[in-house]
Every structure is written in structure tokens, then in C-alpha cells.
Amino acid sequence: xxIHEYQAKRLLAKYGxxxxxxxxxxxxxxxxxxAKDLGGPVYVVKSQIHAxxxxxxxxxxxxxxxxxxxxxxxxxxxxxNAEEMLGQVLVTKQTGEQGKEVNRLYVEEGAxxxxxxxxxxxxxxxxxxxxxxxxxEGGMEIEEVAARTPEKILxxxxxxxxxxxxxxxxxxxxxxxxxxxxxxxxxxxxxxxYKAFLxxxxxxxxxxxxIVTGDGSILPLDAKMNFDDxxxxxxxxxxxxxxxxxxxxxxxxASQHELNYIKLDGNIGCMVNGAGLAMATMDIIKxxxxxxxxxxxxxxxxxKERVVAAFKIILSDKxxxxxxxxIFGGIVRCDVIAEAIVAAAQEVxxxxxxxxxxxxxxxxxxxxxxxxxxxTIIAADNLADGAEKVVKATREAA
Length: 398
Known about the structure:
Blueprint: H1 5-14, E1 22-25, H2 28-38, E2 43-47, E3 58-59, E4 69-72, H3 75-85, E5 89-91, E6 100-101, E7 105-109, E8 113-124, E9 129-135, H4 142-148, E10 153-157, H5 166-175, H6 181-199, E11 202-213, E12 218-220, E13 224-227, H7 236-239, H8 249-256, E14 260-263, E15 268-272, H9 275-287, E16 294-297, H10 304-315, E17 322-329, H11 334-347, E18 354-360, H12 363-371, E19 377-380, H13 383-397
Parallel strand pairs: 15-17, 17-18, 18-19
Antiparallel strand pairs: 1-7, 2-4, 2-7, 3-5, 5-6, 8-9, 8-11, 9-10, 11-12, 11-13, 14-16
Helix pairs in contact: 2-3, 5-6, 8-10, 10-11, 11-12
């Protein structure tokens, strides 16, 4: 789960992380009131969408105009820019050409920026530990820094038994070029950030840029936070920050049926039980020249209702021209899945090729149910056979 910049800063502030003053606004009038509360003389009006690169982005109604982050030097400028930005679609590197509509703004006090740095806490999958990443190249995409100047990326892997220790923070501080009192300030800053990361069950906290102001203060000019969906049951405050307008409607629908669904750009829909098997299914579809339209894991306890919901979600994507169902019957039996597939195919009026590969408990019973259903279902003997058949059937039906 993701949240907006202003929400991330509010959470971090509760943990003692110093953040610039600012207020959220949903209308131009609220933006003006927010600016008046700040007192000036410089204001920054920021589009709030779940995507990076807002400052370098462009609005669809004015592609040659200013981006989604604007510096204003008067209340009138705040009003004018808020009117231009609210309700418009902002396109960035991360949104794709479809962009995202800006429904809220964050009006923040201006800052005297002396240096821009990069700082993040994330889960390192290789070590299963929280890792601190930092760089002197703030304001840039960290992927670009890694590609061009990897030596400028600092890393510290944190032992969960000790947490962030002062020496971890000092090592990062020295690497970022802090001196004197700034070192102690950064140690406190990073310790607070780490505490927020753990207690809020975050999967990512990214500060880009982390700025040093003219008076030597250290502030997060931007803040991004992602959270572990599996821990949201104990993060009521975070859940309340969820903005459904920023999420794909199909993904919202999937979550209501306990389905793990992510929309992709291909034309072959996938329905699989198990995340690892789902990844393998997408890979083998690409191996045979196809493009998966989604990741969809129906889970080990799939039933008729869940399978029907899965089919509806897959077919809600207009790009889908074929479907591959790949089920390994372990906890759930193949005959139960087969009955659910038949019921789902009848209920949703399937109009694209459907290839089904079943394996595991009661697989012969499952195959018999499919054969006797009277539906045009293409049976596959194994995963490779299924991928090859669905790619071929999709091309022939196009």
C-alpha cells in the first residue's frame, strides 16, 4: 500500500523526524488558506499522486507548460497554480501516458536548499534485513545513480537484533559529507526514521531529496512510504490514509475477493494458484512469444465464488485476448477447481480462448469435468504445453 507525500510527512513527524511545514488542499481556496497559514515569502505547490517525477512531469491539457511541482512567491501565484493543476491529468515517467488526475495539492513552505542528498530504508530480499541506502546524488532517480556512478551509493545492512546503532548513522553521515553538529543531528534523524519504518510495518521509506538548508538544517523535501499489505491489520491509521482514486479499479475489486492481482500490459490473462507458480507462468508465456496481461494468484483456498470473480476481473481488461488457467491442486482439489472454472466460464460468457492446465489431487476427475462441460476449453498436459497453446490460440483468434 502507498500513501501521499503529505501523509508520509505527517507520519514521520510523529516519530520526531523534522519536516517542512505544509497543508493539504483540495480546492484553490484551501490552497490559498494553506499558504496564508505558512506566511511566505516562498511557497511550493505540489501535486499529490502516487507517482514519482512530478516536478518533471507534464499536464495533458498543457504539455508545454510547467510540471506538477511549482514554486510560488505570492498568494496570487498559489491560487493561479492551484486552479491550473487541480482536476488535471499529470503524466510522469512512472504513470505512463495515461497519467493520473490531480485531486489534491500539498502547499509547503519554501526552503533554502544548499545540498540535495538521497536516503532510503528498504527490505533487502537477499539478506532479509532492513538496509539503509544513501547517496550524495539527491534529486536523481537512484536507478540512474546506480547505473552511472555506483560508487556513490552507500549501503548499511542492519542486524534486527541491534537495530540502527549510532555507528551506522555516523558512517552514513561521513559518507554524505556531514560535519560537526550535523553528524549528531543526522544520527537522531536516521534513528527516528528507522523507528518509524519498523513500527509502521513499512516496506520502503524514501527521502529524495534529503536537503541541507542554508542554516545547516537537515530536512526531507520529499517523502515516499510503502507498507506491507500483510501487516495492515495492525496499522489502522495507515489504512485510513488509503486513496482508492490512486488505485486500479480491478486491483481494488480483487482485494475485496482476497485475490492478488496486478494489471500488466500484455494480452494473455493468467489465473494461477500460488505466487511462485504465477511468476513462472508469466515467464513461460513470454518464452513462447506471448505477453501476460496480469499477475493473478487466487490462493490455495480458491472456491467457485473466487474463481468467478477472478474471471470477471481478467475479462474487465479490454486487452485480454486469451486466458491461461494454471492450477496445481494441493490444498484445493482439481475437481473443485474444474467445477468452478466451468461455472465461471458459463456465468461470464467467455468470448476468448481458454486454456486450462490442471495437476495434482483428483486431476483426472478435474479433466473429466472440463471435457464433459460442453465448453470450448483447450486442455494442456503441462505448463509448457499450456503456454504454447494459449499463445497460438490467441494469435489465431486475433
